[in-house]
Design a protein that fits this description.
The protein is α+β, with helices and mostly antiparallel strands. It has nine helices and eight strands. It has helices spanning 93-197, 241-256, 275-287, 291-304, 309-321, 325-338, 347-363, 367-380, 385-399, and strands spanning 3-4, 9-12, 16-22, 32-35, 39-44, 47-52, 57-67, 70-77. A four-stranded mixed beta sheet has the order 1-6-5-4, covered by helices on one side. The longest helix has 105 residues, at 93-197. The protein is elongated and about 155 Å long. The two termini are 58 Å apart.
């Protein structure tokens, strides 16, 4: 049976009632306060204070504060007048029980209403965020489409202009050839007329090429040269063909290793089953600073395809931002395992993965391990000044000449 608190105090004005209830050493988180327009309860085991108010109050405008060993209740009166007593003056247990039950029921309804309102507000905020994201994605798609259409129109216009120039050049060449042919026929006709006048027999003579006559220019044209396509930018004689082919084979297998039959993924849109689309979406969340959302998107992409190293490397970057350092170590190590064999095409990705793992090691104060990753990153990008500075700083920390902070 609880101990009733009787050493409370109260003051009032025409519009307000102030009640002070001593907490007798109880912690604030253990204090339970129930307040309605006609009933007040402050419960902190084993003590209980309850008041059956003399007049109704406005519960919506009333407030309660717990601190410094006392609970203070500020109640706003509905009727502005001075009370003779704080509580009703009766010992009728049935009446008090009825008021208590009615108050508790009203309090429960209030809590339920607040819970529903909060849930509705959260759903509205989620809906708004989803609509905003869909709108941004639609705008991005429209922008890409406009860019493609503009590029297609420009290329088409350039092709048509080139074809028109080619036709005009061909027409000019044909016209020049006809003029030469007509001039040659006229010359032969005049020569035949002079032979008839001089008494020579008129006989068709095959025209002979005159000495020193300049031949007609050859017809110009374009020769299309097609080189064998290569994915890697290095020349074939400089490439490690076996390693490059192995890397291309692994990438192709990774993009074929989709698993759309997972039961909980059946309701996803087609684009949401594409790891490349999800990677771009996660990158947008990362740029916007929403690292938790980025991690969730990368998680889904990795469930669809665990062979793409960029997904693990980017998720490691998110974990670094969220201070999940061991997870960052695990993801960056997985990315480095997938980035084999080491070839020119994945050099930049290996550099990023080494830096992220090295940063996680340093934040865990494992500076020797972090230095190894930064040195490995420098091997693939030896001219990166920022990497050189960070590597030297880690050396100084190991030697005891400098101290790294968490922000570094």
């Amino acid at each position: 049976m609880p101990l009733l608190v009787s050493d409370h105090s109260w003051t009032q004005t025409d519009s307000t009632v102030h009640i002070h209830v001593p907490l007798k050493g109880a912690r604030a988180e253990r204090v339970d306060i129930v307040s309605t327009d006609e009933y007040i309860k402050v419960h902190y085991p084993p003590y209980l204070f309850e008041a059956f108010l003399l007049e109704p109050v406005d519960d919506d405008r009333s407030s309660a504060k717990v601190g410094n060993g006392v609970a203070i209740l500020n109640l706003m009166k509905r009727n502005k007048k001075v009370w003779n007593h704080l509580t009703i003056n009766t010992d009728d247990k049935d009446l008090k029980k009825e008021i208590r039950e009615r108050a508790l029921l009203k309090y429960q309804e209030k809590l339920s209403s607040e819970s529903r309102s909060k849930k509705e507000k959260q759903q509205a905020e989620k809906k708004y965020a989803l609509e905003t994201m869909m709108k941004l994605e639609e705008e991005a798609r429209d922008s890409v489409k406009k860019t493609k259409d503009a590029e297609r129109a420009r290329t088409t216009a350039e092709l048509e202009a080139w074809q028109l120039r080619q036709r005009r050049e061909a027409e000019d060449e044909d016209e020049l050839r006809r003029q030469r042919h007509d001039l040659k026929a006229l010359t032969e006709k005049k020569e035949a007329g002079r032979n008839v006048k001089s008494g020579q027999s008129v006989k068709a003579v095959k025209p002979q090429k005159r000495r020193g006559e300049v031949p007609a220019p050859r017809r110009t044209g374009n020769i299309l040269v097609v080189f064998t396509p290569r994915v890697f930018p290095t020349a074939l004689r400089e490439s490690r063909v076996e390693e490059e082919e192995e890397w291309l084979r692994k990438q192709a297998e990774a993009r074929r290793a989709l698993n759309p039959d997972v039961d909980e993924l059946q309701d996803l849109k087609e684009e949401d089953r594409n790891p490349d689309f999800l990677k771009d979406k996660g990158d947008k969340y990362f740029v916007a600073g929403d690292f938790l959302s980025a991690v969730n998107v990368y998680n889904l992409a990795i469930r669809l395809n665990r062979q793409l190293p960029a997904l693990f490397s980017n998720r490691a970057a998110c974990h670094l931002k969220l201070r999940n350092l061991h997870k960052a170590l695990e993801d960056s190590s997985t990315a480095l395992d997938l980035l084999t064999p080491p070839v020119a095409a994945n050099a930049a990705a290996r550099t990023r993965a080494h830096v992220r793992r090295g940063s996680a090691f340093c934040q865990l104060q494992l500076y020797a391990e972090g230095l190894q990753d930064y040195q490995a990153a420098l091997k693939t990008d030896p001219h990166n000044e920022a990497l050189q500075d960070d590597t030297q700083r880690i050396r100084d920390v190991i030697q005891g000449t400098e101290t790294l902070s968490d922000s570094d």
